[in-house]
Design brief:
two-stranded antiparallel ribbon; 11 strands; 21% strand
Amino acid sequence: MDESNGSGRQVAALPQDPFLPSGRDDRVRVLGHRGAPGPGRPDNSVAAVTEALLRGADGAEVDVWLTADGTLVCSHDPVVAGPGRSALATLPELLAAAQQPAGVRLVVEAKPVSDPVVAARTATALADDLSASAGGAALTLSSFDPALLARVRAACADLPVRTALLGDRSAPAAVVVQRAHEDGHDEVHLPLAGVLRMPEVVARARDLGLSVTVWTVNARPALRWVAGLGVDAVITDDVVTARRELDRAAAVRETVAA
């Protein structure tokens, strides 16, 4: 199509870049694994999550633990008392950082706990922090711990959040999918190794109404492969590569479909 340049003259429109996404909402989402950690940006920190978004991620996955004083802090490992405790981001701080741009997706993984009392306090603390957080981030609460996740889902029933059962590398992916469906969750988050052993599980999950996220996907061939399976999102340590490869894979699929 020709367009006017404002002076009345007609100029030819530039062809669309075939490797840019078309704007459709069915592309595979990219979530930074604990943000985008690096020097000066510890994993699960506000700086790491902010960097992931700057690099083109649709969102990030972070880990939370409940401290003895009832604070949810962002850390992959259990929190111990000491000077390092104060350097950790709290969940409210991280939620505030994930409000811009609109539509950021944040996966908050509640780490497993063996004490039922702590599990109940964790679920309540999550509900309290999320209800107090204003903004437009799309939130998913995940866990490897089915019992904890059930408590979290019940505590957050009145909040606009989703829940996702995480599968570990040793559990058959089909079993995780079935458990996620039976427990009423919205999503299932599967390890790449499990999907490699049983690729058909992605279609099975989708048939059951579950969104599928695969972790942790870094290599280009793996990124293209899971995109071809129809997953909804990937968690990755390399946001830039993942965004580039998945956008190219989407462009190829759109070209073939056309």
